Amino acid sequence: MLDNDIDIEALNIFYKEINCLVGTKSMLKIFNYYRGAQITIPSHLYNRKLAAKQVVKLYNGSNLKMLAKKYGYTEKWVRKIVKNIDNSN
To answer: Which pLDDT value is given to residue 58?
Structure first.
């Protein structure tokens, strides 16, 4: 299916919204890849375990708030990760 063959006005609302977000070419890639599949979009961009590893690497004693914001988790969560670092030493 070519981009110029797509009737935007007749699209399923889901694909119409995707089309507005990423454009027709990318919307078609998503459609062709996931067509018919039930997918769940995670509420966090970053994987909790992998983000925790990054927090451990990047924590410098004063960037707790920045790390929480960067990875989309709470300051409480980052504090817990940092505390586990201190307790394991």
So the answer is: 96
